[in-house]
């Protein structure tokens, strides 16, 4: 179930994902972590679903890691 992080139904707590932090949006630098909670309420978002990782960082999902 590989998703691109734009559909809320694809993103679940416990999944490993790559996110873009707010301060990294210009560079596109990705940060990898485990989803703690979903912050976007709408069913989809063109820039990725906003999540909080277990370490507390917040960003938009770019990839769902499937290895």
TrEMBL record:
Superkingdom of the source species: Bacteria
Alphabetical list of Pfam families matching this protein: DUF2196
PANTHER family in the record: YWBE PROTEIN
Protein name as catalogued: Putative repeat protein (TIGR03833 family)
Lineage, uppermost ranks: Bacteria, Bacillati, Bacillota, Bacilli, Bacillales
